Amino acid sequence: MKKRIFLSPPHLGGDEIQFVQKAFESNYIAPLGPMVDAFEREFSEYTGIRHCVALASGTAAMHLGLRYLGVGSGDEVFGSTLTFIGSVTPVTFMGGTPVFIDCDRETWNMDPVLLEAELERCAKAGKLPKAVAPTDLYGQCCDYARIYAVCQRYGVPVVLDAAEAMGAKYFTQRRKDAKEKEGEKLGRSEDVKSGSVQTTLVPRAPSPVTLNHAGKGGKAAVFSFNGNKIMTTSGGGMLASDDGELIEKARFWSQQAKEPFVHYEHTEIGYNYRMSNILAAIGRGQLAVLDERVQRKREIFDYYRAALGCATGIAFMPEAAYGRCNRWLTVVLITPEMFGADREVVRQALNAENIESRPVWKPMHLQPVFDCRCQRSDIRGQQGKQRYSARVVGGKVAEDLFERGLCLPSGTAMTNSDLDRVIDIILKCRRA
């Protein structure tokens, strides 16, 4: 059997084993310890977000962030419908109701126009959401500027689900065109000897643009270090915020809400959510090579696009003009009427050759666990399983992306020969 090609496997950089060895030598192998402290400090320095707390998962981070904002029974939280379920389940933990906002076609992220319209409608009805929690899909920042602006207008805090977006950037100014992005503009060049003046493309330094890391600027941001992420601790997450009080409260809850007594005393209910010292050691090694991983992810995307971009019926996830995607996964849309095969035919052909690929996230409003038509949270579905009430705003764009979207293998240790193997199978589907 041919070598297995996974969708997005871990890729160790070399320093992880040294940090883990130090953790063993110190005998700190349980939650907390010097590696956790160092990981939090280095993570803060890398992202530019002042405070952070290392946790067991990104889902735990979202849970603590929403708890701090006071989400409770009957409260609504707006989130992306095109996302992983861990982004929205914490709303149900708190007894709240998820409201799923559709994405736009330009970025595949939460549509700011739909968000604004729904916030306006809710404000008139006197029932604004407790928070807005958009997802940075596949490592592309959602439109922070527009989302922050409309949420600020209504006084609604934003908790960013940046779980997939380590290393992604958001520009404080939008790029105008590709030439400006590369620092080239139309200008005048003068031949001194001949005295001629002509208009040519001349290099010019780009205008100063501030690059913010994904998650910067919201009330809080959530990150994931799951095994398939661009950087991993095998399992883990981070809650980050410029609000120190929020992080300290989350830190307190994440350690079973233990009060500062010699004995165990509790005045609140907490959770066992802290990251272990061993996992933090791995995270430090991964963080050190993150920029290299992002560069390789983008190279993989460019390689796929060069080979498949001209194939009729295949389109690639666009990059928003306001940011730099980490290209965690290369994602394509396959239009069967044009390509000659649908997404599932291509996926099965890859699987038959021991290559993992996956449909894009199934929209939350289509998930059987949520009922977007009912206002009760105690409804029962098939086999008596509990279903949760939810609402959806739009949904057709996300449904189309799910129907046609396919995530291609994007591991940073892939060789060009591996990529060629994937590409060849996809193109053979076209001829089938």
Layout of helices and strands, plus pairs?
Elements: H1 16-26, H2 34-47, E1 51-55, H3 58-68, E2 76-80, H4 89-93, E3 97-101, H5 112-125, E4 131-133, H6 144-154, E5 159-161, E6 169-171, H7 178-181, E7 184-190, E8 197-203, E9 211-213, E10 220-224, E11 237-241, H8 244-254, H9 277-288, H10 290-308, E12 314-316, E13 323-324, E14 330-334, H11 336-339, H12 343-352, E15 358-359, E16 370-371, E17 379-380, E18 386-389, E19 391-393, H13 396-404, E20 405-408, H14 416-431
Helix pairs in contact: 1-9, 2-9, 3-8, 5-6, 10-14, 12-14
Report on this model:
The protein is α/β, with parallel strands linked by helices and 432 residues long. The protein has one domain: Type I PLP-dependent aspartate aminotransferase-like (Major domain) (Aspartate Aminotransferase, domain 2). The protein is 35% helix and 18% strand. A four-stranded mixed β-sheet has the order 1-11-10-5, sandwiched between helices. Strands 4-2-3-19 form a four-stranded parallel β-sheet. Helix 3 packs across helix 8, helix 10 (290-308) runs parallel beside helix 14 and helix 12 packs across helix 14. The two termini are 23 Å apart. The model is unreliable at 177-206 (pLDDT under 50).
- Major beta sheet summary: 4 strands, mixed
* Number of H- or I-type helical stretches: 14
Going by CATH, the architecture would be 3-Layer(aba) Sandwich
Helix content: 25-40%
Q: How far is the first residue's CA from the last residue's CA?
A: 23 Å
Number of separate strands: 20
